[in-house]
Queue: 4 jobs
Job 1
Amino acid sequence: MLRSIKLQSLIYRSFLTSSLVPLFAIELLLLLLYFGVNAYLSDHHQNAFVEEVVSNLEGISIREANLVDGQLAEVSRMAALMQRAHEDFFAHPERCKGVVPTGLFRTHPNGALYKAFDNGGASLYFSASTAATEAVLRKAWCSEQLDPMFKALVNQNPLVSQAYLNTWDDMNRLYPFMENAPVQYGSGLHMEDYNFYFLADKKHNPERKPVWTSVYLDPAGQGWLVSVIVPVYRGDFLEGVSGLDITIDTFVRAILDAELPRGTSRFLVDQDGVILAMPESVEQLLKLKELRHPVAVSAIRSTVEKPEEFNLLKSSNDDIRRKMTDVLNDVSPNGQYSLSINGADYLLNSQRIPTTGWHIITLVDQATLLAPMSELHSISNQVGFVAISIMVVFYVLFFLYLENKSRHLAKRVADPIERLSNLTSSLGDQLVMEKLTSVGIAEIDRLYGNFNRMSSQLEQKTQALVDSETREKVRRKETEILERLAITDRLTGLYNRRKLDEVLTCEVERSNRSGHPFSIVMLDIDHFKNVNDTHGHPVGDQVIVELATLLREFIRKIDIVGRWGGEEFVIVCPMTDMVGASQLAEKLRVEISSHHFPVIEHLTASFGIASSMAEKHYEPIIDRADQGLYDAKRSGRNRVGVRLIAPRNDDGALL
């Protein structure tokens, strides 16, 4: 028969024998392994660290390239927006009215026509080869209409330093205003001789899309820069080229001077291997000197590109030349290369920027990168010797401590188990069981916890069910709130543009199915800009909120009102023809004009209405309503405008 032994004695004996012998053996083995492993790791850890850095560098470089691509794509979108505005300007010369102000334009002694003073807009320059006729003066005067867009584009994007329009007859309109334009440009500025013009013409850009130039020296004196340019056509005639400039100094400050790890540098090259922009650290490394700041180089007669030494494909360093050839040909699928410059080894990562085809190059100095690893290896050896000395002292004390600790441990483990054994023997004898408290030993505490949960399992499950139902109600409420926020305007509480698009699409489909028309009422606050300029935007917002309340009060129950944008509102009138929409618009016009608004007292609004004509999409109806609104504005405001048919151009397409 197996002889029983008390748990306390078993733990005491087992602890001593199972702890001392293996512990001594393991510690001795660890000491022997420490220095061997440390030597092995010091040889291989550097390679692993470099591989990790390469992996991280690739991720960081991809993110940076995506960031730069997003910024450049935004500038391209701005250029396309400017292109549409300028083509609209040339397509509608009749919009320019008024008399050319006396003294605004003057003729320089060198024969060039120029804008005499800064009126807050762009400078203007006509080459001496273009006679200052009445038509030329009117063109110069009318082009003042373009200045607000120039100003907005330059001010809203920190990358953009200049916006301009160059025309076929050698006119240059440039924002910000350039002092002494005829002195800077000289008597003649033949646009077709510059890459910021001819790269956008029909030969080089038949698709008429935004085009990025290579680096060139700015005739306006801003130093090295790149431009995104767009052609401006009137029909098939190239009226000119509009562009947005980014100086190299701006590239460095906005993109390349970001905080980087020690020994890391970043620069930009174009698809031909020419360095577009680089910080001073790369200048020193490649022994080049970048011209960043504006320089007064006047009368540049044609495109001046960067010197040959800035082309890395022609570098005197064979390794740089070969690696840059690989970079531009995308030899490495992850963009990773190694490079030797001036006897130092570098990690190189290249990421292509899709919008322009440029490459953002990141260099990491391997010596700087691995310096902490060498220092760590030395420290590790010192730590090993110190550890041996400490361990000798430690184990003398440990032997004394372990014997005493084993006795206390045996008692600490055995006593709680004996207590649980006694308690379970009386399980069922009491209605309320004693709650066992933690003893600090994970397994025993878990056993105690299981025992305690037996008496309260039903209560816990019930509470869990209540909590689950509560969470589900909260989730549904949050979903409802988020859905409501997604379709409403935050300022007015009306439907937003997104919701109105859905409503209009549904109305078009319903109207086509049923054959019943629906109508749109579009209204715009008259002279709202004066409200903002005079009383400030908070008052303007208050006016918009007040008007939204007024619209909700006086429209019909079946009508749907929303904020189309800014001070413009749209009312969708289901099952309503043009007569009904006109009556509603007139009613609202009268109510608004007679309403007392806070601070500004009174205001008026102009209306445009349109009804469906079996269209497949709602955009033509919106266009007719918008044209009606335009007619109301042009006819004096505070009235209702009606366009039965949207205007068309000579080809029959809707304007």
Job 2
Amino acid sequence: MNSPERMRKWLVSSGVLNRVSKPSRYIGKELNRVMKNPAEKLRILLAFPDTYEVGMSHLGLKILYKELNVVDGFYAERAYLPWKDMIGEMRDAEIPLFSLETYTPAIDFDILGITLQYELCYSNVLAVLDLADIPLLQKERTTEPIVLGGGPCSTNPEPMADYFDAFVIGDGEAVTPILCNVVKENIYLLKSGRRSELLQLLSQVQGVYVPSVGKKATVKAVIGDLSDYEMDSNPLVPYMRTVHDRAVFEVMRGCNRGCRFCQAGMIYRPVRERGVEEIRRSVRKVLEQTGYEEISFLSLSTMDHSSIDLLTEEILPLLQPQRVALSLPSTRIDSFGVEIASKIASIRKTGLTFAPEAGSQRLRNVINKNVSEDDLMSTVKAARNNGWQRVKLYFMIGLPTERDEDLEEIVRLARRVKAVGFREVSVSAAIFIPKAHTPFQFAQQIGEVEAARRLGILKRLSGRGIQLSSHDPSSSTIEGVLSRGNREVGKAILKAYRLGAIFDEWNEEFDAAIWHEAFRAEEIDVDDYMRGYDTHEELPWEHISTGISKEFLIEEYEKALREETTGDCRWEGCTGCAVCQTLNVSNVLRKV
């Protein structure tokens, strides 16, 4: 019998923590963890399908952990996928996946919620279920926990539809407590094996997609105002260094700049900002409750917050006494961005990152990146004059209509930035992958051979103070198939897992040969998923609505091919994406 006490004794007495790497991944007991008496409560296990240090850096899981635990009748705990050495130890000892708070086996929970943050973690999701002793296929479950998926990848749930009972589409805070309440009120259906009846009830909740009910049209759930949900002033503090070892504050959600390749910029619309005072209040409390030496203002475009100048003025005095650093995801390509970055650097310099995305103005127009080379050069010169020695530039290759001369422009532009006087310029080149619910969902993805050829053009950048890093073309191919896949691709995911695919998002663990063998076994034609789609073709994810109309996505794609740009509705008026009308919401801008 697997009990919490058996899990605890095994951890403490078996010596396993001396045999595995990074044992603090598995002990729990973090500062500010939530401990409740689980009796008479709906028990929810929030699982991140990657290692502890990756999952503990993910804000979405932390938000749900807080929001669910403020409800008296719910108890949410956490689990992360153990590393391969620990998985081996657990299998040898017949120890299942268990929670960090109470060491309760995952199968004893009522709901198992799994974050779908990136496609290359899909085999990890199956590893989570396998380690939990939960049948991988949804149709084979009876009284096991409801397996719930959420996160950006759930906007195309079809590749993983056979493995989940339900998906949350949209803002998790808006719908997950409602879903949990339906489960709690009808828990007898689950416990008596009447699972399908419970799933029928869940399918009636807005923002919940239940694959077993059929391809039912599902509109995302949305929060009208982030300020309706208090920021977490008592965040979990781990005992080990995590990937992003800092306190994170979501200062706004959504971005309307309209980059045509950017899935997040489409699926998280509209823009909803938090007020300066509530952010300042939360930062002060977190500094009192934790020992973090760095905080981050997280959003898709933090520099676009309507009151970012006042916000930094209010926050910096709180950080100066202990020299706590403030980081922003990236720097806006204009003088204002450098001005704000310079204020922040007055305490402690963090990295300075710019994302031109493309080397030529023609291609920046195609992708709707509304910045010019003059904007970039004046910005980096201002950065150099303010003391920065290093800068990082993000580009993409394989964008629609890209030509070799566009790649040559990346080389020229990077060298021009270096000539400003930086000691080091880092250039990162990602391979474009068409994503669902974006204007470029119709575009073709370049294959591995062509990607390698194009990267070869950029390799002349290496040396003389310029460092080039790039994505692996083979992993980009797999991600591309998974991102636009259907349920047939889902069969290949299971096959790949059975062949040993796990931790594929870790470069040293990824094995393309496994995936191609799985694709062959399930008769998946990779080229068919990499091709361009006709704009009037029915796509596998069209039953999922993020609020944006297909007509808008088609119009934006056609404008891209004409090299025309579209403005930001925050400053230039409605662009017709239909989010506000479909979801009955609007931008929430807090200009002081």
Job 3
Amino acid sequence: MSDQSSIAPLAARQQLMTEPTLGAGNFLDHAIAVNPNRAVPFAYSHHLDHRGAVVLRGHSLLDLADLRDRYAKWYWANGVRPGDPVGIVVGEGLEPLLHFLALTALGAVPALINDAMRHDVMVRYLNHVGVVGVVADDPTRLASAYREDPQRRPRFIAMAAEIQAFDAESAQLPEAYPHRHAADEVVALIHSSGTTGTPKSTMLAHRQFWDGKQPRMVRFPAEPYDRLMSLMPHTHAGGLSYFLTAALLGLPTVVMSDWRRAVVEPVMEAFQPTMIASFPRTFVELATGELPVQGAAKVHSWFNTGDSAHYGHIRRLVQLGERPAGLIKPWLLPSEAAEQPALPGSQFIDGLGSSEMGMALFGQVTTPESTRNDRCVGKPLEVVLKAAVLDESGEELPDGTVGLLGVVTPSRTPGYWNDPKLTGSFELAGYWLTGDVARRDAEGSFYHLDRTVDVIDTVSGPVYSLPIEEVLLADCADLVQDCSVVGVPGPAGEGQRPIAVVRLQAEAGDSSAEEIQQAANKALAEAGLAALAAVSIARTPQDFPLGPTGKVLKRELRTRFATLFTGQ
């Protein structure tokens, strides 16, 4: 890694905060314009050499612009024009980001697709979007699918390696390049995890996706030695958001291509990050078993977004690393160091957000000194004009009452691509419904209790799955490594019953489902929560199904155990 800092000076970052034309479609050009360190590598890819050692390769802002322009020439030569949606199905890491940069520079709309998506679902999704072309690492199966349905076939289905090998010397770019985006122009389509059905296609707009991130220009990073490890899927809004921020800051960032611990930990040890951003999936693995002490030695902050994380995992991670002078709450990092000594341990920033929200809109900080506060996601960030717990008619509910979480914010999505009816279903009384069930306390902190589709309708009233999972992971940690709680039908007239599918700790591998249920129900009774009607132990990956972004597919578990109590 270069000894010269790639981080943009404070004055440059302050200039970016107030730039009226900056957005998700042109952030690279703005970063190049203001950062005097534009030629210093900041974005790192990784691979293993022939001896199995980690090799990091750095790319500067100027390097990324050169790669972007080369890819853009291929797309232009193949007829891609402003407004055209193009499917991108390439492996995680830096590669999908390069396609995003190239397509947005042409004014086209990249439809970024996690290559772990099931193939038949992917074809349905591409057809719904109406892509003019698809670029994939291996387009063989896609081409085969479209031979059976030639009327739906996009204009081109190309191998990603073809673009990488393209001779761009004699190729042309349009006269108006890079494209100048209107504030509300769509710059990307991001699919949902599909945990509740066929993935939705969330639109990201040029200015909307930048709104709310401006304060990070002076709060993030804290020190010139900071380094970020991005474990987000970079086909997802979370990965794109962190990369946008890192590019504008010039923050040294390793863009990971795999989220599994076996791959992540050696790169952590080589890169020595001070900050790690991820969905909960990797944090579960890092918090399980022997902690990654060497790789996390310099970590002061863990950033989680998407689904909120569980205290049982957070409390282990914050034991790692150290917090340097200046690392203080309530959110992200301050612009000036406070006079305080380094503290042992790190902080975990749990941000409840989604592609539809545009970013994490709530933030809860946990440190080794924090008291436990299950399911608290903190208070809304500055970009949130209003957040409320609503009833089904859109009326605001009093503090302490459970209802639908709604937000009013310029960072929210314009809606779903080609689906105004679906967009309308998430709009209520001027709020955007996040799809979550929550409550607010008298101090204004919000508590995330469940996804609306996952609430368990028992004969005694609604039961929320996430607080139950919290207790299993924190209070039964000697037995339970990970878990998912769902509701399944009871006998006629009895409503649903909560059951848990659990992955066991290695040392608890011989435990029976009855033993786990007994321990869990004892802890749940002490917490004043509903008892589990059954426990199923997941002993294989198939028993604990994950979607392409690493989320547990609760809909599959509900189907799998639908007749557990009905005997049908």
Job 4
Amino acid sequence: MPVRRRVTWSAMALAVVLAVTACSDDGGEPSPADGNGIVRIGLVEPQHLIPSNATESAGAQVIAALFTPLVDFDGEKKPFEVAAESIESSDNKLWTVKLKGGYTFHNGEPVTADSYINAWNHAAYGPNGNGGAYFFGQIDGYDDLQSTDPDGDGPQKAPEPKAKKLTGLQKVDELTFTITLSGPFAEFESVLGYHVFSPLPAAAWASDGVLKDGFEEALIGNGPFKMKGTWQHDSRIEVERYDAHPGTKPKIGGVVFQIYQALTADYADLVAGNNDVTKTIPTEHLASAPGDLGDRFKKSPLSSFQFLAFPTFQQEFAKPEVRKAISMAIDRDEIVKTIFKDSQTSARAFVSPAVAGARPDTCGEACVFDPAKAKAAYQAAGGPNRLQISYNGDGGHRDWIDATCNQLTNNLGVECVGTAETRFADLLTKVEEKTPVGMFRLGWSMDYPSMQNYLGPLYSTGGSSNYYGYSNPEFDRLVEEGVAAPNQDEAIKKYQQAEEILAREIPVIPLRFGQNNFGHSTRVGNVELDLFGQVDLLKIEVSG
């Protein structure tokens, strides 16, 4: 759903930067009456910003500013049209998308059917290596866009795919196109709410299907905000209101996404008045946050799922018995109580309770804390004498990782160390390249409200976020049957059967279901974080 390297910024350094980037004429706080205030929001460094390649939460927050989705979700998690005028299907296989008129890209180009078709073809074309390509896999022709590697020599040896464009995408007119799926998918309209399905302008392309060098650094979208300048890596990304946007207008003039290498620095700037929104209060400050912030310390529901992943392709973690024993040696409740101050809940299932069909305790015995049984099973299975847990240092994970390692050391009789990668993007790069990192921490927030979104991307063979090499043909079949089911109720039955396979094989260890624990400055009001963990940029405003 989820999940880089420089010296941590100080509050004083940030204050200097923000004095330059603030938008008031006299250097003071902007007037709440003119709607031109600039809001400062803390982020970690995104891995990518091209929508079809950005599958982590920091990139998603920036994309939410720069792009308008075809659909969004109401309070009951039902899709409703935003950039789309209508999305219709009589058989859940052939879908017709009609776009609203009046939408333009930030360079003035009109948004058309071609804007979507060209972007999606690029996203799905295997050699482009888009992290979100998986989500286009239901569209006819997808398999022909993927490289094959019959000799097993790696992608550098793979031949060119058979095709470069999806046969399932057809233009009807300037504002209408059709999507033909390889099989029925009743929840497909909800899938289209994910940002990987964003359009791209003609200005994005150097040639047919080839992005211009540097386009990602100064992205052109169709959203309520446009890029101001370029992506300043490990420093900031700035956006400003796009006044020609035909949809709901922001109540602010722009956003400075301040990039931090540590959550503690993000939070320190919030308390000092040098930041306006900290999306995640560091665990070490959860106890002090109510005193530091008063009623500006906020909580809201979140769809997040935190887990430890096993590189199942490595010999020491290949046995489910080893993985299960490690899971049983972790006292989730103790860590939730002592580290997270009960701000999260222990996870003993693989699907967040935020979506229909989720059930508690599906993990079964593997998620029941039993140190004696865990140690005996671990020794019988020949578990390694040394365990490593890698995590991103910019995410505030050190305390709970250390606590988890202490439990594993005490309960299994092994050496356990936590290893921090400076940035989440660096950790993802290493696990994508199968660099040995031991077990590793990941998190997931839903892209759209469906059990399928917690199962398919994370555990299907070739899933977009299956960083651990897990593969089970029966699991794949059940998820595919759920996708093809005629309605949600029938789909849920298949997804629940698939989840039971995960409970047997434990490719990851469920740890916690989250909530948003966030804070904001006195400068801003109407600050809301949604189930996706994103600040609602159309509601936030600068207050006096």
